[in-house]
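Reopening: structure tokens for the adenosine-5'-diphosphate complex, inputs below.
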Amino acid sequence: MKSSVLIRVAGESIKKNKMRTLLTMLGIVIGVGAVIIMVAVGQGAQRGIANQINALGTNLLVITAGASNTSGVSQGAQAFNRLTIDDAEKLKREGTLFAGVTPVVMTRVQVLAGGTNWRTTINGVSTDWQTVRDWQTSSGDFFTDNDLRGMRKVALIGQTVADNLFPGVDPVGSQIQIRNEPFDIVGVLAKKGQNAVGQDQDDIVVMPYTTAQTRLSGNTRIWQILVSATSQQDITAAQQEAAAIMRESHKIGDGDDDFTVRNQTEIANAAQGTTKIMTWLLASIASVSLIVGGIGIMNIMLVSVTERTREIGIRMAIGARGSDVLTQFLVESIVMSVLGGAVGLVVGVGGASLVARFTGWSTEVPIAAVALAIGFSAAVGVFFGFYPARKAAALDPIQALRYE
Amino acid sequence: MPNVITSDASPTPVIRIEGVRKDYTMGDNIVHALRGVDLTAERGEMLAIMGASGSGKSTLMNMLGCLDTPTSGSYWLDGIRVDGLNRNQLADLRNEKLGFVFQGFNLLARTSALDNVELPLLYDRAGRWKNTKELAAEALRRVGLDDRLDHQPSELSGGQQQRVAIARALVTAPTLLLADEPTGNLDSHMTVEIMSLFQELNDQGITIVMVTHEPDVAQYCKRVVEVRDGRIKRDHPVEDRHNAAADLRQLLATEPEEEEDPGIMVEETV
Ligand SMILES: Nc1ncnc2c1ncn2[C@@H]1O[C@H](COP(=O)(O)OP(=O)(O)O)[C@@H](O)[C@H]1O
Ligand SMILES: [Mg+2]
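Re-run output (same inputs, fresh job):
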């Protein structure tokens, strides 16, 4: 039979059983739709993370404790807590390609003002932090080197903290209580909004690292040292220089690094790696529904073969080969699953944009996912249609004609 | 490749079977459905196979129709050796040489008369047929249904459905038309109508073999073969052959009220 005729025959048989076909297709529609939405959300998150990390600051290098393996994941327990203020100061002193160097001390605290409570993150940094993170103030000014040296109890707060503790008033000049110590607010940081993974970047309190380490009890170790290179072209050289200074500071040889210097691309890749795994995980869970949809197709095709035994007998009597019958039923199940896949694609793309609208996440449907969804649903049609089709093709024409 | 007999001086018979046996194994039992059948049918014959239920008529028809192969013995269809062919070769042979008409019409439900008749043309492997729709319409014209092309089986009377089935059997210009009790589901009026059509086609040179229970129907054929217990018991020409067209005219003259109303939509589905 010509392929155009085959498609026509399949189309007619599908038309004759509209309701059943629609319900069967629904399984594939949901499967493909779910896969596309999952991939779109994951892909959007990956893209968002990349954008976010690029927006972290200009020409940023991040130094963390612990050696890294190739995938950028820190390992080696002995390496923890090995970043010191001396490291940061040495980098600041000896670096020739750095625009700024700041240690970052991080701790979660409860902040109090006028009877209101707010839980947020303290970043203890040096004055270079403003350059490195490229972050302006919307009110007041950044703390000074004097504040840093004097371990003064001064702080800048992010917009979210300001909104919650000082609604409607300029907090500059007011005080906040952190672990029973009063801190003077010297500035409010300009609003930055959410980052890619939905964290509110404005939920932050910034103070001199000296103050953080002396005035706040608890774990106030140096989390990371941020360095910004003087220019984009110098990034690699700056990265090497930072590593060399760190080795000198730690008095270690070339291969024994107990720290890692990453540039933005490397950080982006590491962060995206996690999301990539999440995306694949979600997509694989979603594709289970595609398989369930395929089983639905197989079920209906088996019913269809039994119901149409006589039709198969007639076709064989007038000259259809087993292969003609096989192809007919296979084409039918492929048409069904590909149609389902196409509708699922529309549902998925629509669903992804709905998700984007209602959650504020960015979503992105990659072309590869579209091709994969259509290809995969066709494969489902072939895989789950083959057994029923082969059953049909193997029928004995005499028995089939006699079937009631 | 099937071997073609060319040695005969006389034209190749349409059917030639020699010593055909067919056994069915049912568990430990063996049913001998055919116990050595010899039969030859020349071009242009109109042959009725008769016999009691269980005598082996259908088995013989299945054999002749290349739906089944004999346990032993030989069968040449239009000079082509059939026994020993595989499933695909049998399918191709059915498409090329045979037309089937069944007792239960066996049309595809919810499929127009035109599409039903077109079907055998679509399974042709040699690509002989180009304008298949037109050929199907032409075949329906030959059976007098040119005004019913778009009707589905459920919208046609039994006699009309059987005529669609005959058109489907004719459309590939087969060497042999096989009919297993073609009038078994029809009333006497429609039976005469269908037999008149068969006689007309036979006059045009089509070889017809049919199974029937009814002596009246056999009376329209040219030759009768009687089967009993898997053997041919009698094989004789029909004396005083009836003319179905004349009988039909007579029927219409005596009972004009019972003329088949082609407008009736019968609500039964195949
Ligand atoms: N597929 C089969 N399996 C077993 N026995 C069969 C089969 N087909 C026919 N028979 C047996 O073969 C004999 C002849 O059957 P059949 O050719 O159908 O007779 P008829 O058509 O004359 O009524 C019967 O005894 C029947 O039971
Ligand atoms: Mg029978």
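Chain A touches chain B at residues 1-2, 5, 12, 16, 310-311, 313-324, 397-398, 401 (CB under 8 Å). Residues 70-81 of chain A have pLDDT under 50 and may be disordered. Marking as resolved unless the reporter disagrees.
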